[in-house]
Amino acid sequence: MDARSQSSIATGNVPGGVADAPALDIVAVSKRYGDVHALDGLDLRIECGEYFGLLGPNGAGKSTLINSISGLVRPDSGSIRVLGHDNRSEFRVARRLLGVVPQELVFDPFFKVEDVLRIQAGYYGCGPEAQPWIEELIQRLDLGFKRRASMRTLSGGQKRRVMIAQALVHRPQVVILDEPTAGVDVELRRTLWKFTRELNAAGTTIVLTTHYLDEAQALCHRIAIVDHGKLKLVETTEALLARNPWRFLQLKLAAGTVLPAVLEPLVASRTNGSVELKLHRDEHSIGEVMAALKAADVDILDMHTREPRLEDVFIDLTYGARNG
Amino acid sequence: MAEAYSDVRGFRTLLAKEIRRFVSVIGQTVTAPVVTALLYLVVFAQALRGQPSSYPDVSYTQFLVPGLIMMSVLQNAFANTSSSLTQSKFMGNLVFVLMAPLSTLEIFGAYVLAALLRAALVVVVLIAATWPFVHLVIERPLALIAMFLLAGGTLAALGMIGGIVATKFDHLAAFQNFVVMPLSFLSGVFYSIHSLPPFWEQVSRFNPFFYLIDGFRYGFFGVGDAPILHSLLWGLGCFLLVSTVCITMLKTGYKLRA
Ligand SMILES: Nc1ncnc2c1ncn2[C@@H]1O[C@H](COP(=O)(O)OP(=O)(O)OP(=O)(O)O)[C@@H](O)[C@H]1O
Ligand SMILES: [Mg+2]
Question: Given phi > 0 = left and psi -120 to 50 = alpha, else beta, which region is A71?
Fold first, then answer.
């Protein structure tokens, strides 16, 4: 027995990945609902071991893409491979390699938490040998005190925890989470961040959709932005952030202090007693700003800089483009 | 490559889950239909006591029991698959089955087998419950089992189709009330079709339920209104037709995989 089948976080023991194949290879996938192009010839390749962010506004096509991968949606055209296995012609292997947490909160009210996880493991061909891992999932997702509770008695967040455990129960190599942190408490968010990072460190590929951009920024190595069923861009998180040339300098000034006139054009916003200056990466140096402040003998109580956030970039790329 | 996994375990798990589902509400799924069938039996046996059964050496009550049992089989096989599928479709938890590495045939097989098991339970309980009052001998056990499987299988598959197509529970109720019930009532449960006027006798011969019930009754008495071969062929034909439609729906993802 290899070490990985012991209860441990490593998930690499699922056989069946084709050597060197990307975790997900999505080619020219289209899906129409009436007049809506939910997916419009979308191509995307996600490498093994990535922590990948799939972003886009409501209705962009993220869930349609994820459901096409998991087999819940039949695309009109295109092909999808999971670690080299076609998700239609080799659905058994492909689906065993995949663990998906659907966006909607769904559960089977007939069963207890423990039963749900055992049944789910059974669907994937895992028997009693999966029990230690199920145990670990129950502990990690803090479901221990609810293990014998009927699904119908759980709170929304607790049901979400069970769904996450369900997706992981067969130790998939590729895990897709469709907005797992929508409507969950801070604690579960933290747990999930830590847990998915550990899974990722142990070799699992993670794909995450979220509308919390700070979350995507903190977790994802690479990010794709989808809109109107098309891929807008795929870039590393740093490259994406670097697209935005602005830096922000926040200054808290003593009461009655006036900012030197040369700095006035840089003011982005003023809130009771502080000003925020918007500096272009290439045109304005912080040194010059400091020198101007010093020359004018401005009394600064506090200051700090802020990097652009993914949110600023995202708005530029989606809503900016829509309005423009 | 995938030897670490057992391929039958997925199927077994789904089957076991479907069985647990009806066992956990056994009052509704077994006890209630048995009580209903017994009520029919008491009422009709009382009301029509002394009527000839049109079979030699078979009392009307004896004639009635197999028909009532088969009617319960038909209704319960249909109810089990249709309500289970509809519920998980509406609750949304069907996605866990649809995302699992289960083939179309495995899904079909698990649902149909669970329904057959529930129907078999109803049969056994009914026979046991009527035993002290109505003495029945099973003359042709193989024919009986074959007819049970074909009839139960057909209605279980039909129930799956109902579950796939229905967008409201009302649709299922309508199907039960306007198709399953009339067809089973107009199929010679309560009478031999030989006792009908010639026109209605001819009409009954195009009702598949007539053959399902008649063939089943043949299993008990060794005689029926139609030759047993006809009943078996009708049963087989119905089962093949309905399962082909059902399996095709599952394969294409009709209404389930949007
Ligand atoms: N079953 C369906 N029938 C009709 N239209 C659908 C269906 N599923 C999705 N759509 C449409 O396809 C488009 C993409 O929807 P999708 O759920 O993929 O968006 P999303 O990116 O996941 O959005 P959100 O962030 O809100 O979850 C939307 O316009 C939606 O209305
Ligand atoms: Mg979505």
Answer: left
Say whether A294 sits in a helix, a strand or coil.
helix
**Cβ neighbours of B7 in A, within 8 Å:** 92, 125
Which segments within A47-111 are labelled E, that is strand?
A: 51-55, 77-82, 85-86, 98-101
Contact B126, B34 (CB under 8 A): yes
Which of A253, A263, A244 minimizes the C-alpha distance to A306?
A: A244
Interface test with A, best of B1, B3, B5 (most A CBs within 10 A): B5
- Chain B residues lying within 8 Å of A73, measured CB to CB: 257-258
d(CA A147, CA A285): 58
User: Cβ separation of A127 and B9 shorter than 8 Å?
Assistant: yes
The predicted model scores a pTM of 0.88
Q: Residue A259 is which amino acid?
A: L
Tens digit of each residue's pLDDT (9 = 90 or more) over A263-273: 888 888 888 77
Number of C-beta neighbours around residue A84 at 10 A: 18
What percent of chain B has pLDDT above 90? 62
Q: How far apart are the first and last CA of chain B?
A: 32
The SS3 call for residue A223 is: strand
Cβ-count burial A189-214 (b if 16+ within 10 Å, e if not): eebbeebbeebbeeebbbbbbbeebe
Q: Which residue(s) pair with A249 in the sheet?
A: A277, A305
Give the lowest-confidence range in A138-152, B121-135, B239-253.
Answer: B121-135
d(CA B55, CA B63): 8
Find the closest chain A residue to B11 by CA distance: A123
CB A223 within 8 A of CB A53: yes
Neighbours of A228 (CB within 10 A): 17
| Better pLDDT: B72 or A272 | B72
Name every chain B residue with its beta carbon within 8 A of the beta carbon of A16: 1-2
Here the tokens at position A234 are 């795929």
Q: For residue range A107-136, what is the model confidence (pLDDT) as tens digits?
A: 999 999 999 999 999 999 999 999 999 999
Cα–Cα distance, B110 to B129 (Å, whole number): 29
The count of other CB atoms within 10 Å of the CB of residue A181 is: 20
Ligand 1 pocket mutation pick from A29, A32, A35, A36 by most atoms within 8 angstroms of CB: A36
Q: Report d(CA A275, CA A171) in Å as an integer.
A: 51
